[in-house]
Amino acid sequence: MPSPTLSDVAREAGVSLATASRALNGSATRVVGPALRERVLAAAERLGYTPDARAQAMARGRSSALGLVVHDIADPYFSTLAAGVSEAAEDDGLVVTLASTRTDPVREAEVVELLARQRPQALVLAGSRLGGDDDRARLLATLARYVSGGGRVATVGQPLDDLPCVQIANREGAAELAGALHGLGYRDVVVLAGPPDHRTAADRTHGLLEGLAERGVHVPAEHVVPGEFTRDGGYGAATSALPLLRGRPGVVLVAVTDVMAVGATAALRDAGLGVPDDVAVAGFDDIVTLRDVTPGLTTVRLPLHDVGAAAVRLALGAGEPSTEQRVVVRGEVVVRASTPRQPTR
Description:
- By secondary structure, the protein is an alpha/beta fold.
- The chain folds into three domains: 6-60, Orthogonal Bundle (434 Repressor (Amino-terminal Domain)); 65-168 and 305-329, Response regulator (Rossmann fold), CATH 3.40.50.2300; 170-301, Response regulator (Rossmann fold).
- The chain is 44% helix and 16% strand.
- It has 13 helices and twelve strands.
- The chain has helices at 6-13, 17-25, 34-47, 53-60, 76-91, 105-117, 133-148, 170-183, 199-213, 231-240, 242-245, 258-270, 304-316; strands spanning 65-70, 95-100, 122-126, 152-157, 165-168, 188-194, 224-226, 251-255, 280-282, 299-301, 326-329, 332-334.
- The strands form three sheets. A six-stranded parallel sheet has the order 2-1-3-4-5-11, sandwiched between helices. A four-stranded parallel sheet has the order 7-6-8-9, with helices on both faces. Strands 10-12 form a two-stranded antiparallel ribbon.
């Protein structure tokens, strides 16, 4: 038996095709009365008809989805943030469509364009700004078209033009981490700085160096080691930094993200160095993975789940006069066993 069509429902309910469509799919301009709508719904149920999601989106002007764009879904930072987005979206009756850019700025613009064609209620872009001016211009042009058609957008991380943003105070958090490490007695610091063109990595690196400089600690340029913003990137960067770490009591290795710190810890152990006996280690984010890391990692805790929920609220309220367009989230330094207090010198 072929599946029932909208025309079948219209005949069963004794209404026009247009009325059946409005009753089942909703309409951005014309509303069907309650009694007539119930008649159409009853006919659809008798026939076992299921509305087409694409038809509903066209009729309503928007689908019942919210698009979420992240850099790397395997990164616990983004998976925790995505959980917050998903729960907040469900509270508003929306389903999340998730896409990953794989830290490619060209792919980011392509993913946003693809999601925008599906007419979601809103888009949330989570992660550091990537690429150069041309990539930024293309992304902004795509978002401008989407917003001009009634879509809503919010970003997480750094502001993008004048779009609503849940801004992470990365620089300030790193400076506070520098102060905590200095207070524990650390003066010899090696930084795993992430990719040089990665905005979040750069902000955290600068904040850390500035916080140390304010306390009289100068970190030589060769002690700032770049690497990919991943676990393997942390492993590789720590491996290349081994000559800066061996035989230096009281040295601390600071990674600008926890996933890099986890990889760095593995590299140190593979090289025969103990944490924290030979090298102290600190990170940034307080990802859930740290619950199973020994020793516990000193880090900057970010309320990532709440950040995701805040981005949804910001996106869905975008354009309303009462909606705040910029929310700044500050981290909290958490000192754990990976950075024990140093003996007074």
